[in-house]
Specification:
The complex is a heterodimer. By secondary structure, chain A is mainly alpha-helical. Chain A is built from 12 helices and no strands. Chain B is mainly α. Chain B has a single domain, classed as Helix Hairpins, CATH 1.10.287.3510. In chain B, about 65% of the residues lie in helices and about 0% in strands. Chain B has 5 helices and no strands. Chain B is elongated. The interface between A and B is large, with 104 and 85 residues.
């Protein structure tokens, strides 16, 4: 059912030439994907997709549409060749799935390798109920470190390409979407809750769904919302752009620093069990610090990207 | 989804992937191409998460009295991939914005036409080629 809707939205996005509608449809699409992930037991992923796909991506795409224009030109090329290429590739992929394990099959190869250890030993070795956080920050800490660095690098790339311009036309107090009283009142009440919730997600990620990635995005969303509703440049007064470079680097530094500390204490890089006398307690501390580093980096990179795209003036 | 054949999710994921692929190769607007790339990306997410599902399993958060959990590993991979995805999409958008500033267009065909015009051997240098826009 949900999957059927996804197909419909994808088809509509191909047909439409109004990019504004395409971007909004893509936001709806992301929200539905999040619902689908919920249905497939992936609560942490659903959470992330809802915050990132439906929230941040849509805002960023709309900010760049403002700079590039709303309407797409009709292509002069015939769609025949691409259709054939796509059809052949799709047919090959479908052929490849024909002997794949069915949905929900507990004997599928994917459930046989390392996953049983994560599920059965995770509680004893890392000591936290949320297996996703345990795997993310402890078992696969190297991966996550790499991904944090990728996010940091992407943030740097955007800043190098665009930079954060001071926008002389934007006065604090002038809202990007006009003066909407209802919106202002509602958002004013919501922002503290959003920020509080982000902190909860950050520090409660060991026990329930959540963690540094989600918390960073949600925290940034609070500021993005503030900037959109209460006027361009207002959020900059709260978090100045020059802090963001340093914060992003600080997050990566915390993550790498925890790794170095465990290295200097004679264990492997990112082996948190040396951080405390009790290995499980050390794991807890390590995961908390690492997630904090991830949260800070994600928050500052997302906000820096938003500043860079929304603050740029249109060149015409 | 229990009543549906077990490969349904895979088929939909492939369809969405091909839809995104089609947008990327067949349509000329760069912002639209990025949306297509997003469709492609999400289809991979759906494929992975479907892979991690265990029939009758619960969300991978330890709960008393539950012994069967879905596989947490694909969740971890996709969770980080989503956030990395938005960061890389933002790099793409930044590039599109810069291209728009340099060429005055985000349509692939117009950009190529301008590039070709700039590469033509300039016999009558001042009149036939118009290179004023990218300085």
């Amino acid at each position: 059912m949900l999957l059927g809707f996804l197909v419909l939205i994808a088809l509509a996005a191909i047909r439409l030439h109004d990019l504004f509608a395409v971007v909004m449809l893509f936001g709806v699409y992301s929200l539905m994907t999040a619902a689908l992930f919920m249905d497939l037991d992936a609560v942490d992923v659903a959470f992330t997709e809802a915050a990132v796909g439906a929230g941040v991506t849509t805002v960023l795409m709309l900010s760049s549409l403002r700079l590039t224009g709303r309407w797409e030109q009709r292509s002069k090329h015939s769609p025949l060749v691409p259709l054939i290429v796509v059809g052949v590739t799709g047919a090959a992929l479908i052929y490849g799935t024909l002997d794949a394990p069915l949905l929900g099959d507990p004997n599928a190869p994917v459930h046989q390798h390392v996953a049983p250890r994560y599920i059965e030993q995770g509680a004893a070795e890392v000591g936290m109920p949320n297996m996703v956080t345990a795997v993310l920050a402890s078992y696969r800490g190297y991966d996550t470190f790499g991904e944090t660095v990728v996010i940091f690098t992407a943030g740097l790339a955007v800043l190098l390409l665009l930079g954060i311009q001071e926008n002389p036309e934007a006065k604090p107090g002038r809202a990007a979407i006009g003066d909407q009283l209802v919106l202002r009142v509602v958002v004013k009440m919501l922002i503290p809750l959003i920020l509080l919730y982000a902190l909860y997600v950050q520090f409660h990620g060991d026990y329930g769904a959540g963690g540094g990635f989600q918390a960073g995005v949600i925290f940034a969303t609070g500021f993005v919302l503030y900037d959109l509703v209460f006027g361009e440049g207002n959020a900059r007064l709260v978090v100045p752009p020059r802090w963001l470079h340093r914060l992003a680097a600080l997050g990566v530094l915390i993550y790498g620093g925890v790794g170095l500390v465990s290295l200097l204490d004679g264990k492997a890089f990112l082996d948190y069990s040396v951080l405390s006398h009790d290995p499980v307690h050390g794991q807890h501390l390590g995961v908390l610090l690492v997630e904090l580093g991830v949260g800070i980096t994600v928050f500052s990179v997302i906000l820096a990207i938003f500043y860079a795209l929304s603050g740029r003036r249109r060149v015409s | 989804m229990s009543g549906l054949p077990g490969l349904y999710n895979d088929f939909i994921a492939i369809f969405l992937m091909m839809a995104g692929f089609y947008v990327v190769i067949a349509q000329g607007n760069l912002v639209k191409k990025l949306v297509g790339l997003g469709l492609f990306q999400t289809s991979v997410f759906i494929f992975y998460i479907s892979m991690g599902k265990v029939a009758g399993g619960h969300a991978p958060i330890l709960t008393d009295g539950v012994t069967l959990y879905s596989n947490p590993l694909p969740h971890v991979l996709i969770l980080t991939a989503i956030v990395v995805g938005v960061a890389t999409t933002a790099v793409g958008l930044a590039l599109v914005v810069r291209i728009n500033e340099a060429y005055g267009s985000v349509e692939e065909e117009e950009i190529q036409a301008k590039d070709r015009a700039a590469e033509q051997p300039r016999v009558v240098d001042d009149e036939s080629t118009d290179r004023g826009s990218d300085s």
